[in-house]
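Deliverable D4.2, example record:
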Amino acid sequence: MTVNDEIKEFIKKDVLKRFLKYVKMDTSSNEDEKNQPSSEGQRKLGQLLVKELKEIGCDNAELDKYSYLYANIHASRGVSSIPITFCAHLDTSPSENGKNVKPEIHKNYNGKNIFFKDDKELVLSPEECPELLKFKSRDIITASGTTLLGADDKAGVAEIMTALACFMKFEELIHPELRIVFTPDEEIGRGTEEINLKKLGKIGYTVDGDQMGVIEDECFNAYLVTISFYGLNVHPGYAKNKMINACRISARFVSKIPEYETPEHTEQREGFYHVLEIGGNENKAVVKILLRDFDEANNIQRIDYLKQLIELFKNQYRGLKTEMKVKNQYKNMKEILKEYPEIVDRVEKAVRMSGIDVIKKSIRGGTDGAKLSEKGVPTPNIFAGGMMFHSKKEWIPLIAMQKAVETIINLCFLWTGIN
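Output generated by the structure prediction step:
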């Protein structure tokens, strides 16, 4: 099966139109909000997508009370292979402003610095992001300089939607039964908390990766450690040998975390401690630390080190009380996916069928796919095409979105079992 020129032209126009529409909707997730979804914008995007799915002929699309969007497309006639899920997330990172996103298309990128309309001092250069040069003479999309773009993961949403539109419009594109899910609050680690596994296929693919051609079947093993320090406040004029300043002690504690094991000093397969939050006062201070590594044993060693450090501080500051909570956030999906090599093999073949090179990577982070794999739905990650996610310099080439749609179409064909 080949994606012909007519289909390619449809993909180019459709995926761009959808992407530009979706990124203008503010769907930043909010970690301080306990309800799901954590922001109303995610629900509004979900409602729009339900409407669009029905317009292309998918009548069973539904948005549940948690803002999970589910949709089914029946298999092509004569196809009886297992149902497959494609997944992307509705929210964007709260790390950068996602309100009033104004996407800018830089036509026929010339290989030089890209400047931003609303921040003249902001520059995206090939020196800091050499991947740009792979897309010389291609159209590049950025935001205007005061917000993130939202390609993470509205590119993935747009690509799945365009693939579905293709299946409904072009009957020659055969596919198995498809069970789509768009999730809320992935960026704050809640993307699968209320997911209905009964509505998903036997296997899945998240469309949430970065540069064109990337396939990721391994991610970090992830923990969140929360340490509370309980001190004793005394008037500072009379505090000698009496005050136990929890705030100051917590800061000293953080200073004992090895600097060479922090995100600023690690790359590739190196793990780290990441101090996410520190705050409080003399009576109570709280430190939140993310632990990340591809090998769980290394994270266990980091947890043990923190426990030992706590004991040292309790001996040094008599009367100090502490509480340490450890939460496993997600596991390395490689441990599950290695048992299902055909899931990754077929997506590699689908990428090559799309005319681009395969780039195998391990995610220095996580996706909904990690949790889905852990829950029994093996789910590697496919590129969505964007780069420099979560920043004002976020960018995506239009060709990457086109190739992501082609990859989804080719992958579906491969799962039909038809030669």
